[in-house]
Fold these 2 entries.
Entry 1:
Amino acid sequence: MQKIKINGGKRLSGKVTVSGAKNSVVALIPATILANDIVTLEGVPDISDVASLVEIMEIMGAVIERDVDGGKLVIDTRPVVSKPLPYGKINSLRASYYFNGALLARFGQATVGLPGGCDLGPRPIDLHIKAFEALGAEMSYQEEAMHLEKTGDQLNGASIYMDVVSVGATINTMLAAAAADGVTIIENAAREPEIIDVATLLNNMGAKVRGAGTDIIRITGTQDFHGASHTVIPDRIEAGTYLALAAAMGDGIVVDNVIYEHLEAFVAKLEEMGVRMTIREDSIEVHKSDNLKSVNIKAVPYPGFATDLQQPITPLLLLAEGKGWIMDTIYEKRVNHVPELARMGAEITAVGDRIHYGAPNKLTGNQVHATDLRAGACLVVAGAIASGSTVISNIEFILRGYDNIIEKMTALGADIQIIEED
Ligand SMILES: CC(=O)N[C@H]1[C@@H](OP(=O)(O)OP(=O)(O)OC[C@H]2O[C@@H](n3ccc(=O)[nH]c3=O)[C@H](O)[C@@H]2O)O[C@H](CO)[C@@H](O)[C@@H]1O
Ligand SMILES: C=C(OP(=O)(O)O)C(=O)O
């Protein structure tokens, strides 16, 4: 079994370049199905979610050239057919739900197994289904897969109010509505930068999506799609993870390829803690920071503090002076990193809807488990801080979302490697 071993306590310095955003690229790849043509994606991160999506696309007939090191994907979706995708890689990642919207848009039907992804407590997809039904599709289960089929000649535009702000449901509705007859209005839409990125590609492929990035998105359907080229936005969650690491262990680290506006809430929290930073046009330099103050964190939809950064920032909070709490309003049960940090000596507990921590803590290396992607990132940061050696198992979760994490951390001076161990 592969594990990550970190000999912690080393001060870090240098530059780390952020890769393309996981949560964009996992939607952009299925979105290329609408083009029925050749789409080039640049800035594609080398993560296992991308490899899984490429495999699924190839099963459906897409012809794909991938330059892993160059971060480039050239996808020809002309040969794609809407074949049932009940099992396999489909169940290994969350974003496989985007095949529902994309296949429904192009073929009027889709049979896709239930999505996997990180176990963060309940992750229903009722809003996706309601939106597809509002657009004129019927849903049934075939074996263990969800089968969607248009009931008329075409999907029809509709007014859709999202009861809960949902990234996945907003993007899936955009995908299906892009090819519907007439106008769709999504109200209470999610506003994450990844939604703007997907809308940009869709528009470059011929779609008419307006208002992405606000809570009202208006889509005028078309059947007139074509090829396009697109560069994936930088990964704000990867950036935030390295900013937290830099604040904890850096003697001056530049986090490059960053869109600061995507990280405002996160950077504001670092500033509140007393982290010193210089913000430049596309990079953030984190200076050596001492005497950090504890803060409380409430994870909420964008533009607020991101749930995906709640776990990676926790080890930094553990170094600050005083007590504090973290509350995740999106995933109340996103607390699996807590017992692992406690095994490393942290004063931290999850009670009710909050994580309570006392600080400062002296973390000590231990054998720990990455229960999900960002819990894994949290343990990598904690391992870099801790004295002694930390061995992290279940690293496949981490590799779902962090491009070349061993190489990037090593370049900063961390003593980190992948080992084989039972
Ligand atoms: C691949 C991807 O982009 N994953 C991200 C996406 O996940 P994902 O798109 O699955 O998350 P959502 O934004 O949909 O979830 C937000 C909240 O809405 C609820 N909900 C969602 C859909 C639904 O049909 N019904 C419902 O009740 C969820 O349980 C959750 O409480 O956004 C999350 C919230 O920013 C991030 O943590 C994930 O990294
Ligand atoms: C929860 C995450 O991913 P997914 O939705 O793909 O499981 C994440 O990126 O933190």
Entry 2:
Amino acid sequence: MNDNLLSFDDALARLLAAVRPLREIELVDTLAAGGRVLASAQHSPISLPPLDNAAMDGYAVRSADIAAPGTELPVSQRIAAGSVGSALQPGTAARIFTGAALPAGADAVVMQERCSHHGEHVRVDHCPAVGEHVRRAGEDIAAGRQLLPAGVRLRAPEVALAAAVGLAQLPVLRRLRVALMCTGNELVMPGDPLPPGGIYNSNRFLLRSLLNALGCECTDFGIVPDRLDATREALRRAAEGHDLILTSGGVSVGEEDHVKPAVEAEGALALWKIAMKPGKPLAFGNVHAAAFIGLPGNPVSSFVTFLVMVRPFILASQGVAEAVPQRLRLHADFEWTRPDRRREFLRARVNAEGTVNLFDRQGAAALQSTVWANGLVDVAPGTEIRRGDVVDFLPYGELLG
Ligand SMILES: Nc1nc2c(c(=O)[nH]1)N[C@H]1C(S)=C(S)[C@@H](COP(=O)(O)OP(=O)(O)OC[C@H]3O[C@@H](n4cnc5c(N)ncnc54)[C@H](O)[C@@H]3O)O[C@H]1N2
Ligand code: MOO
């Protein structure tokens, strides 16, 4: 059996070669920037922390003043976070709180658990090293240094870092506009009764959630009408104002639906058979200026091809520098003795021991497997796996957002 399968790498390379990265930039409030892609490198206007400050509640001292544990020093001042004290006179200590600026002359903080306060004096029961419990100005970020590179996805840590140096707004690329359509006469929406032969349209929910998690602006066209002229009309409308048209279903060899001829009539279409499992058939082309990707209808095939093909395409279109997911090398706690000639993406789960188990049903319609799993094992074509072998594991954390 030879049906001229395209290798996974070739298919992905072809998809990525067609990417036209977004150029339009918007300035958004840092508070609303989560999930967006940074358009230009940001540099820190200040040092972080701005001043030397205390890392503990305790006493700021000159370390040289404490020759031995039990030294008593007069407490000359009290410095709370948000205030700046005066220079520390030799032979004195300053009461200080976490985050408060270290007074000039002090070079260490002794945490209060190692001191006892008596009236105006403090007894210091520990000889601190120079710099002990002191956070140096600029030790996190020096003023002027690059804070975040262009093309980074702004998640909680990135927006927090931008806020920490006072950036109130950030330049981001506009969101990718994606039109979503499903094909299939059997599809029924949850909430409607299920007729004989009908199935609920789970791919609509799957793909919408995945697109939202990637920060796309998704227009949902629902189910494509079952006539050629209506399908062409829907595609034309979708091509206006969208960067990508994404469909589910109708990409295999069946003759039932009109998406393939409609895309061919309105643009161009290549039907690929990719050496991957699940997810062999994939349609790629364009409708006018919009890119077109047709995913296979089988729910797990839709899921996997989205994660390993569409996701990198979307991220690269959004200008994300790191579009390839980080893989982990983990030991298999399973046997895989019937390898396929296609590259396989198995639904798998890292267990408490840090090894990997497989879901027992790996069929392209077994949607349960995707919920049980917390990642995918990426198996090269024709590879048997024995318990204890090292496998490539793609964690959901790298794929679902
Ligand atoms: N003779 C051949 N038949 C098939 C081949 C092949 O090479 N030769 N490839 C198989 C593979 S692999 C896949 S994957 C599917 C792809 O089929 P389509 O993309 O054409 O999708 P449909 O036929 O419309 O549906 C397949 C399957 O998925 C269910 N489905 C479709 N849409 C949804 C949805 N929105 N939500 C939930 N489930 C959906 C549909 O009911 C079918 O069960 O083709 C194989 N056949
Ligand atoms: O490979 Mo299909 O994509 O089996 O389900």
